[in-house]
Amino acid sequence: MLRIILLANWGLGLELLKVLHCRKDIDVKLVVTQYKKESHDGWFNAVYNFALQHNYKVEGHESISFEKLREFIVAFNIDLLVCHAYMKILPEKVFSSPRLGSINIHPSLLPKYRGPSPTYWVLKHREKTTGLTCHYIDKGVDTGNIICQSNTTVQPDDTIGSIIEKQKLTLNDLVDTCIKNILDPVFKSEPQKEKLSSYAPRQN
């Protein structure tokens, strides 16, 4: 059984926690997420609330230091750190500590649209396809080697919300493929092609 720490936020983060929660081969030892006592956004506390309801150990991302996170990884022999929509850049001393490394699930087909607002820019540039990318975390922003991807068709009437809902439907298979690849001793992750890369700045 893989011992995992999840750092995740928002709707896709909630879906990711649900997927991990249902797997018999996963033991989520800690959930790190955002929390605000009073929020008008129904998704803001979604990961936090689900984690509490299902008796996971939860830490607010503002209250846990990188040093404390690393100490937890070492103390509980964490195999894998999993991220989605976590708005802090992890230092190498953290992302290199788990036995199998650290991965991120990013809502675009990397290397296109790295950064914090990929779906906004997918729609703005009228892309026909987007998706999710599971990649290893390295020192860059969304630059690590690709483990696997899933595709989502973009329709003319799509919104950020509708694309997220479509991406949720692909998340279970993505996680399944990702875990199988990580555990496969002959699997080789794919370096991103820098010539094809683009950066999605935060939407103002």
Structural summary, described in words:
- The protein has helices at 10-22, 46-53, 66-75, 92-95, 118-124, 160-183, and strands at residues 2-8, 26-33, 58-60, 80-84, 102-106, 129-136, 146-153.
- The protein has a seven-stranded mixed β-sheet, with helices on one face.
- Strand 1 (2-8), helix 1 and strand 2 form a beta-alpha-beta unit.
- It folds into two domains: 1-100, Rossmann fold, CATH 3.40.50; 103-204, Formyl transferase, N-terminal domain (Rossmann fold), CATH 3.40.50.170.
- The protein has 204 residues and is of the alpha/beta class.
- It contains six helices and seven strands.
Task: Give a short overview.
The protein is 32% helix and 22% strand. It has 204 residues and is of the alpha/beta class.
Q: What is the CATH topology descriptor of the largest domain?
A: Rossmann fold
Q: How large, in whole angstroms, is the Cα Rg?
A: 16 Å
| Spatial separation of the terminal alpha carbons | 42 Å
Largest sheet report: 7 strands, mixed
Instruction: Give the strand order of the largest sheet, numbering strands 1, 2, ... along the chain.
Output: 3-2-1-4-5-6-7
CATH superfamily of the largest domain: Formyl transferase, N-terminal domain
Average pLDDT: 95
**What sort of overall outline do the alpha carbons produce when their principal axes are compared?**
globular
Classify the secondary structure makeup into a structural class. Answer: alpha/beta
